[in-house]
Each structure stands twice: as structure tokens, then as C-alpha cells.
Amino acid sequence: MTSPPRDPAAAPPQRRSGSVRRTSTLLMTWPDGLGAGLRLDGRCRDLLTPADVQATTVVAAADLRVQAGAERNIISIASDPPHAALGRLVGRRGGGGLRAAIAEELPDQVARGTPLHLLLDDLAGSTLIAGFALVRWADHIPGFAERLRTGRGRSMEGTCAGFAPGANSLTPDGMPARVGENVVRVPPLAAADDPDGWHELGDHPRMAMRRARRIDVWADEGELGIDAMFRDSCWDPDGSELAVHEYQLLATADRGTGTLTSVTARPRVLPYAECPAAGPNAAWLIGMPLRGLRSEVLRRIRGTDCCTHLNDALRSLAEVPVLAAALP
Fold this sequence. Notes:
The radius of gyration is 19 Å and the shape is globular. It has helices at about 95-105, 105-110, 115-120, 125-130, 130-135, 145-150, 295-300, 310-315, 320-325, and strands at about 20-30, 40-50, 55-70, 75-80, 185, 210-220, 225-235, 240-255, 260-270. The protein has one domain. Strands 1, 2, 3, 4, 5, 6, 7, 8 and 9 form a 9-stranded antiparallel sheet that branches. By secondary structure, the chain is of the alpha+beta class. It contains 9 helices and 9 strands. Helix content is about 20%, strand content about 30%.
């Protein structure tokens, strides 16, 4: 591929009768100004669509509210329904270590694959990518454009397929080149003719970023069908919503064993032309139990074989058996 992918999904697929759909969003904002840290508002819902597609049932749902500091550290955290152990995450910093802390402090949520666990797991990635929205607003934030010009980042060479040694995405000293150029205007997440297809998305301030997921699961005799999407987007000063990362996953699994039997990763929007090289490596997971994917993806697809956004999309398939348990 000579140019990065620019093919965002136009609309979610129609919900199938006899299917379950998990949707989640994490909205990243700075309501008290940039110096006051980052606020994250999460929502996740599992919706069962029976044979009568009008008689939907909410199987599970959760909201999450987090205030994070400048170092991605959790200052406050609460959920609805509430969970007493959340307070023990205060002081933890967004990153790989946060996921280990979640497993230690909320093992019940991890084991049950709940909506709350999905939102918590996404805190690590969301606190990292939130700053992309600030780059798009740099000319509207006093002093921020100058900080971008004079600031010194770190070498990204070798961290993923997009930054493989020698890639056009890198400057000679290993820094990312052309940051933020390949963004694509995207339509609303929810389809106008299916208002129940997504949970309530709510309003957002003008400067905001959002991580969104959709996972559809249905049964076809002894097989599970899976259609999932993952999108990171932000809003430009002109009000346009722009995707910077988007993947679609089409997969099947054995319903009895919960084992992945096929998977195709379709890169829809990514920053660099080299990024999609990781897509075919999703097939390395075929034959793995779905419930083990949160750890196996990170173990098997690493370094320049991986795309961190593809890995995030694949890891969320670990809860497909949980969703499938709600099917007739």
C-alpha cells in the first residue's frame, strides 16, 4: 500500500435477529482547562435482539467517570452501577500496569467480562491517545502550537508495523513524521434508521476525543459469527468528526469450545501507509480460546508485527463468549 487507508465505515450493519451487540464509548474532554487534567466519561451496553427485532433487551450496562491528572494518574473514579473496589485504583497511572491493577482489584469484573471491565481496560489506551485532539486544536490553545514545534518526543522506531525501521512514517532520527495528516471525516456512529443500535451517546464539548467499539455476535448452528469495529476520533474546530484509527474485524468461533476459527482484520483508517502490514497477523490467533485473547494478543503479536490499535481491537474479542451466553 502506497498511501494510508481512508475507508471509514459509513454506518453500522443492521442488527440481526437472534444477536447480541456490545457498544462502548469513552469520551475524553478537558472541562476545567488543559492544566486541570483529563476527564473520561465511559458508557457500555450489551443489547440482545431476539427474533422480534423490536423486543430488544438490555443484558448488561455500565457507566464510568474518571478524572486523570497530567501524568495519566487516576485522581477520582466512579461507576454506575457502583463498585466498591474502584477506589483502590486511585493513584494508579494509565499504561500497561493499570491493566494488572484492574485484574488485581476487580477480579470479578475481569472474570465475568463485564461492560465495566471493558471500559476500565480502555483507560490505558484512551489516556495515551487523548492528546491527539489537542494537536488538531493547537492554533486555538495559547502557546500549544509553539510547544509542538519546540518539544522533543521519543524515538518510535521499531514499536509497531507503522514505525518499522526504514518506514516513510519516520524521520531520520526515529520520530513520527506527518503527524495527524491522515484523518478522515466520519458519519455519526448510530444509524438514523436504528436508534437502538447504539447506547445513548449524549453531547460533547467542541474539543473532545472519543474511543468507540461495536461487537456483534450471532449463532449459526455450531458456529459464532462476529462483526466488530474500533474507532478513535476527535472533533475539529469546524465541528467535523475525524477518525484517526479505525478497524473492522470479521471472525468466526466454535460455539461449543469458544475457540477462534477465522479472523480477518480490515484496516479502515490509520495514520501511515505502513500500518496495515500488521493486519494479516491477526490470523496467528486462530485456534486460540477467545477468553484468553486479552493476554495472548499481547504475547503473540508484538513489535513491528503489531499495530497497537489492531491489538486493542483483537483483545476485545475475549468477551465474545460472554456475549454469546445471552443468545437463545
